[in-house]
Amino acid sequence: MLTALFVVARILANPVSNVFQKQLTQRSANPLFIIGATDALLTLGVLPLFVLGALPLPLGAEFWTNMVVAASLGVASNVLLVYALQSTSLSVLGPINAYKSVVSLVLGVFLLGEVPAPLGVAGVLLIVAGSYFVVDRDANQPRSNAFVRFFCERGIQFRFAALALSATEAIFLKKALLLSSPLTTFVFWAILGLPTAAAASALLARGRLAKEVVLLRHNWPTYLWLAITTGVMQLTSLLTFGRLQVGYSLALFQLSTLIGVFLGYRYFQEGHIRKRLLGSAIMAAGAALIVLQGRRP
Q: What is the pTM of this model?
């Protein structure tokens, strides 16, 4: 029951946080600053646990190595995701998240020596087939050209890059989790992400940074809700990783694609809702097959 609760909370939190990220980009906020501010708020939220000694210390060098790598990958992934949201519809980017199951299978081949079974390959093919229905097609353009142009769009490329980094981050988070606990891993993920995000924000010009601070003051509720949903998303991910294998977890999380399509339609008036829901359902079915493949002996 707890595992199901964690999965449902993660499925809901992910697309909702994407809505807040896209809203901020539409208000001219810079992706680097958005992630920096989010990590700063998360750090403020978890710092009392660290200061009050509520976490087990000391932790070994292996834990810290995994955490530093995971936090760096997490910041880079989130920055690329916000850049993708800046230029591409949420109802398109949401379904693409199902490709994370594909990435996890590929990483499993190279890092763990796990060769996909036929059921897993069928899941991969379903995910690719479902993405076909997510593509925006101009009536005057051949369908094949539309599919090629889809993968050539900058926002789509940013999303795939973010997806690859996020899938890799999950592996290092799982390693750190095995050496500590979900809460400990979450707290240090938030704290260690701040220096990387601050360094990224420092790349902004001084004049631009001042404008971002003004935007933060005007939009602080959105930033606060973004930090909350991001925190819920990451903590429930870790709690799920503690109970299920990473591959199963990532595949189950892809059910959020359906919610992402609906939220894109609801808050940003994005079109082709039925076609994208169909594509999302097919991709979610592909992710489910990958889960079933992983459960087979």
A: 0.78
